[in-house]
Amino acid sequence: MYEIFADLHVHIGRSETGKPIKITAAKSLNFANIAKECAERKGINVVGIIDCASPYVIEDIEKFLKTGDAYELEEGGIIYKDKVCILLGSEVETSEKGRNGKCGAAHNVCFFPHLSDIKGFSNEMSHHIKNITLSTQRSNISGYELIDIVEKYNGILIPAHIFTPFKSYYGNCTDRIKDIFKEKYDKIFAVELGLSSDTYLADTISELEDKTFLTNSDAHSLPKIAREYNKILVEDINFNEIVKALKNEDGRKVLVNYGLDPKLGKYHRTFCDNCNKVIETKKPVEQCPHCNSPKVTFGVFDRIELIKDKIKTKSPENRPPYIYQVPLNFIPGLGKKTIDKLLDAFETEMNILHKLSKDDLEAQIGEKIANNIVNSREGNMHVQSGGGGNYGKVSVK
Questions:
Q1: How far is CA 142 from CA 93, 164, 192, in A?
Q2: Number of C-beta neighbours around residue 250 at 10 A
């Protein structure tokens, strides 16, 4: 058994030929570039690319496998240069009956062991989605129906960023995910927390106690890969091993969740869309206390306050620790040139964030910025809450 780093939510912006896949993602995010970034700069061992059901991406994968740099594994996944295992995924937006009778929408990340599996899934989902070439298009089915299609093609379904206000189960569909999946809820063995929440917030909801928590980047650009990630104990890097870890089977398991302080997330607190202020009241409000406007984007923290059913947060004994991780590009003084200098010297972000001493860092970038990195590791930074689509900010205490 050995420990690996995994980020299971990375988008593709464009195909190799420039065809749009995820409109809001960077053009440089294509299948080959993601593999290279994880291997050479990030130090990520397993990456979940979640736009692989697009026929344009399937074409790119087939070409990628012909380069000689990558090959498919019998146990599932694609190995790139013997360094990175790529899991073939699809993010699907489902149509749910939302709260108060309104129509809700939720995102799900689905992973499949082989290219043939995701090809079959893509073909079937093309009957439920208007444009299968684009990422995360609204389907005409619910999560309850989707999980059967996913399993038909040997896949797994993980509810994505489960608390975000617009496209998630708790955010705009339901107070309890079990009400969506009903008797199939036991088939959901992992959920993704999202950037604006953490273990301590999620574990105030009792129905999540037996679910594995995942912290993933939801990267829309190459630098944002691994802004959240997981340390996982496995015997090898492949699809089957990751599934066992998510199910806590045969000694495989998630060891640590590395995530942003949820205050840094774009939707942590409620935000007034009228006066552009983050609302940090003790109790959740649906009207701005500053200007009395009802035009507010409800925050993740506030949503959890409304739906939690445990008075005190108590995590299950086997719940791994959640370690607040400040990504390099959030740290004061670390611009692109300085980050590139560190990567040239120390190879990957995982090395910089986890392994280097203060002296090593100081020799490359000076005492002040080295102190900022060390302080961010140790939680000695001030964090200003984000909301309404604006990230929080980090500053020196």
A1: 9, 18, 18
A2: 12
Distance of CA 258 to the CA centre of its chain: 11
Q: Which of 332, 339, 341 is nearest to 372 (CA)?
A: 332
Q: Which two tokens stand for residue 117?
A: 């599996």
Torsion angle in degrees (nearest 10) through CA of 137, 168, 50, 390: 100
**Cβ pair 57, 12 in contact under 8 A:** yes
- Over residues 150-181, the pLDDT tens digits come to 999 999 999 999 999 889 999 989 999 999 99
Interaxial angle between packed helices 115-125 and 143-152, expressed in degrees from 0 to 180 and rounded to the nearest 10: 140
Task: Say what the pTM is.
Answer: 0.91
Q: What is the pLDDT of residues 200-210, one digit of tens each?
A: 999 999 999 99
Residue 296's H or E segment, with its range, is: strand 296-297
CA distance 234 to 213: 16
DSSP 157-193: EEE-STT-SSSSHHHHT-S-THHHHGGGGGG--EEE-
C-alpha 220/C-alpha 107 separation (Å) is 15
Q: Which of 373, 372, 378, 254 is nearest to 324 (CA)?
A: 378
Q: At what angle do helices 358-365 and 367-377 cross, to 10 degrees?
A: 140
Task: Name the residue type at position 148.
Answer: D
Q: What is the mean pLDDT of the chain?
A: 90
